[in-house]
Amino acid sequence: MELEFDRDMICGYDTVAEVTLCQEETLESIVPDACPDIERIVDVCGQATLSGKQAGSGMATVSGMVRVSVLYQPEGGGSLRHIELGLPFTCQVEAPGLTEQGVVLAEPRLRCAEARALNPRKVLLRVDLAVDVTACQPVQRPVCCGILNGEQAGICQRQYHGESYELAAVQEKPFTFSDQIRLQGNQNETPQLLAVQATPICAESKLIGSKLIFKGLVEVSMLLQEAGGGLSTARESLPFSQVMEIPQGGEDGDCQVRVELTDLRCEPEQGDPRNLEVALELLAQAQVHCRRPVTLLQDVYSTSCQMEVGSKAQTLCQFGEQSIRTQTVRELLETGEMVRGIAASRLSLGQVTQSREGAQLLLTVESWLTILYLDEGEQVQCLRKMMPVTCRLDCPEGYRCTCTCTCPGEVFAAPAAGGIEVRFSLDFHCLTVSTFQVAAVEQAKLGEPRTAGEGTRPSVVLRLPVQGEGIWEIAKSYGTTMEEIIQANELEGEELPLGKMLLIPGVRG
C-alpha cells in the first residue's frame, strides 16, 4: 500500500551574510574659484547616505555617497570658510546562497573624515567608512509532519512538537517628508550654515495584522557661523510616522526597523533666511521574527512490514533575548592647552565587535568623538579621538548575537582642568538566537512483511534494557508498540526501570 504523508512548508528567510565592512575612500579636489586660499584645515563634517543595494549570485552590493563640508581658515585671517564635497562609494560582500530574489539590508556610517591641503588650492579628502550589510535569502523548506493512513500497516510514529523562531519577513519602504527649522537669534543677523547632519532613529514599531506601524525622529544637527564669526550649534528633532505592509508577518512578531538616510536638503527660505527648509529622503528596512509551531516526523516503523526510511536533520532556531542595554560614558580628553570654550561636539559610531568571557559576550563599539573648541588665542581647534565602549551581555554558549548601536542623545562637552570633559550615552540593541537540529523523516516506503525470512516470531521476549535505550527503540527493534510494552510491564509512563527485566510481547493479531 502507498503511504500518504502529511506535509508542511516552512517559509521564511535565511541570513546568508551578516558582516561589517570597513573601508577607506580618498578624493582630490580643487578649491572653487569663489573661495579664498586655504591656510589651515580645521575640521571635516560629513555623513554617509545610502544610494542603492543589489542582490546577485552569491554577492551583495551596496553603494552610497559621502557628503562632507571641509571647514578651513582662509589665508589672511577672517572667519571660517567651507567647501562641499561628495565622494561615492561601493562595497561588495560574499553571500553564499544569495540569488537575485534575495534582499540586502545596509547601514553605512562615516566613522571619521580628514582632509589635508596639498596646496592652498587643492585638498586631499580621506573618509573611513563602516557599512553593516545583511543579506537574506527567501527559502521554502518542505517538512514531513506525519503519515495519515498508517493504521492498516501498523505504522508507529514518533513526532517532534515544538517551535522555531524564524525570520518570517524582510521588507523595506522608501518615504520622504519635509519640515521647517526656525533658527534663533536676531532677524537682521542671519547665521551661515556650515554643516548639517541628520540621524534617523526608529523609536517604536508594532505589528497590527499585516501592517507594521513605526515611529521615530530624525535628529538634525547644524553647525552655524554667526555674523560676527563665532560658531554655534542648533539641534532639532523632526518626528515621523509610517505604515509598511508586511504580508508574512503576524501580530506576535518581533520587529527590527532601521531607517537610513538616502538624501538630505537643507536650504534657507527665500525672504526669511532664519527659516530652513529641510527635505529628507529615507529608507525603512524591517526584519520580522515570528515564533512558528513546528511538527516533524522524527521516526517511523511498521509492526507488520519492513520499512525503508530516509531522514535528514532539520535546523530550527530558538529565541534567546531581545533587549536594549544603555552604557553611559564620561571621560576627560586631554588637549595640552587651556580651553576657553566649546564650539561644537559630535559622535560617530563604527564597527561593533564581539568577544566572549565565559557565559558573557563583550560587545564593543568604536566611538569617534570630534570636538571643536576655542584655544587661548580664541582660535578654533579640532580634537578627534576614538573611544571604545563596551557592554556586557549574558549569552550562553551556542547563542548568536546581532547587535546594533545608537547614540540616543547629545554629546555634552565642557572645558575642564587639563582638557575637555565629555559625556554621552550609547544604546546597544541586542537580539540573541541559537540553532539546533532535529532528526526528521524525509521519505518512507513499506517493504516485505516482517516474518519474511525471519522464521516464526516469538510471542514474548524477556530482556534487560541497555543504558540509553528507550521504549521507542525497543518497540521498533521487536516490531511491537510502546503501548504493548507499557501495559505488559505495568509501567506508568515511558521511563524504563533500571536493572529490571523487561517483558516484550509481540503484536496481537
Provide structural commentary.
- There is one protein chain.
- This protein has 509 residues and is mainly β.
- Helices cover 3% and strands 72% of the residues.
- The chain has helices at residues 471-478, 482-488, and strands spanning 5-30, 38-56, 59-74, 81-94, 103-119, 122-147, 155-182, 192-208, 211-225, 231-245, 254-269, 272-302, 305-334, 341-357, 360-374, 380-394, 399-406, 412-416, 419-449, 460-463, 502-505.
- The strands form seven sheets. Strands 13, 17, 18 and 19 form a four-stranded antiparallel beta sheet that branches. Strands 1-6-5 form a three-stranded antiparallel beta sheet, with no helix packed on it.
Amino-to-carboxy terminus distance: 19 Å
Question: What is the multimeric organization of the chains shown?
Answer: single chain
User: Roughly how much helix do the residues carry, as a percent range?
Assistant: under 10%
Question: How many helices?
Answer: 2
Taking all Cα atoms into account, the compactness measure Rg is 32 Å
Question: Rough shape?
Answer: elongated
Largest sheet, in brief, is: 4 strands, antiparallel
Tally of strands:
21
Stretches with pLDDT under 50, minimum 5 residues: none
Beta-sheet strand percentage? over 45%
Short structural summary:
The chain has 509 residues and is mainly β.
Structural features:
509 residues; mainly beta; 4-stranded antiparallel beta sheet; 3-stranded antiparallel beta sheet; 72% strand
